Amino acid sequence: MFTARFQAWVRARARELVPALRALHLSPNALTIVGLVVCAASAVLVSLGYLVAGGIVLFVASAFDILDGALARVMGKTHKYGAFLDSTIDRYAEAFTYIGLLYYFLFRVHATLEPMLVIVALTGSLLVSYVRARAQSLGFNVNGGWLARPERVVITVIGLIVAPLLVWALWILAVLTNVTVVQRIWLVWQQSRRTAAPDS
User: Fold this and answer.
1) pTM of the complete model
2) From 65, 68, 86, 90, the catalytic residue
3) What is the CATH number of domain 4-194?
């Protein structure tokens, strides 16, 4: 995962934009929804074959995912519903990107391998998030693994903007998202052995 220092730098830059967002009377939840709409626009561009433009718009969409959390913390509006909505919208946003890629490869390129990579990558991405959410609901702390959402977004953006790397990006996503699922299952198993009572 990205280093804690880099994450702190990104959050600090996001906090600098918070006063402007407050002046516009935008709520954190509103930013979350706007981010989803921008991500949907990126997916449409990708599906139509405008990969570079789609990658740039996806990068912009990812900024909203940072800004909504920064705004919520500054405004003291870190409510459970906001966290729930943000997490749910993130899953839709990621699915939109994969759906756009799937449409592009099926109907514009008429490829056969790439659509399968998209499906496998989408499955792995959703499971990475599901495993974390389910583990946390059971009291485990699961933040490890190679490809959390920030890494997946970066790899996808690079693949879209640098066209020759797109298939390689899909291979990386298809393989390493599912490796990350296994890593997180392993982490939960280790924690369960240390802290949980044996199953009866």
Assistant:
1) 0.88
2) 90
3) 1.20.120.1760
